[in-house]
TrEMBL record:
It holds the Pfam family HAAS. The chain crosses the membrane at residues 77-101, 107-127, 139-166. This is DUF1700 domain-containing protein. Keywords: Membrane, Transmembrane, Transmembrane helix.
Amino acid sequence: MTRAEFIARLKDGLVGLPTTTATDIIADYETHFDDGLAAGRTEAEVAAALGDPVRLARELKAEAGIQRWHQEKNPSAAAGAVFAVLGLGAIDILILLPIAMGVVGTIFGFFIAAIALFIGGGVVMVAGPFAGFPGGPFAAILMGLGMMAGSVFIGALLTIVTIWLVNATVWYARLHYRLLKPALEPQAQAAVQSAPPAPGASA
């Protein structure tokens, strides 16, 4: 693979990342080629030492998604991190997808139930005192507040469980793939420098 082919495939794989981030990554790998060529390697040898550019792009995009998740901790960042990890192929989708769908469906159902409970508590607290609620207006207010507090507790518990599940997914992927950019670059640089020189070339 030539330098131009490697960089072109890497660029294609990085589509979706912020422009500045993708530009920095491309510049890093251009530097790897410069260093390898200066050491007497051919473009093909440097490209082989760096690895598959498509896989590198997936790993770097997964790293970006995971960093966003650690920084933001919101549903959008969680979905981005999970889909980025799934894009690596680190998890056997055919086996885990049915399980994941079941877990996600259950959590979503509980979230809907918590929202319904909160709304119901509000209705009881506001309308109960005027609708002849058993025990009188005070009991209606207490019941409504209790229902709303219970729904908030359920929502908080589900949020904790969701965060734990996303973190577990990321942890599992990191057992199989190099996801951190600081770890990727030194390994790539070492691979380029340790590759055998081209026949007749000076190291």
